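Hey, I'm writing a tutorial for new members on how sequence and structure tokens pair up, and I'd like a real worked example in the thread rather than a made-up one. If someone can provide the structure for the chain below, I'll link this post from the tutorial.
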Amino acid sequence: TTSEGEAAFAPYVGGAVFNTAIALGRLGAPAGFFSGLSSDLFGGQLREALGASKVSSTYAHTSPRPTTLAFVRLN
């Protein structure tokens, strides 16, 4: 936590291709995510977000490799 008591880091799903698939699914277009998803905690969050936006992850390969993370610092 920060000195103000807020969470120091907050996970948000995303990525260029991921965001496009989510947008298409939310618009009602048939959409699928054809890429790799990790079997770790963050991969699970990505898969859940796809399903919630009606994006198929049927063809997404599940990998034991860790999810790539990116951190953004806000001033």
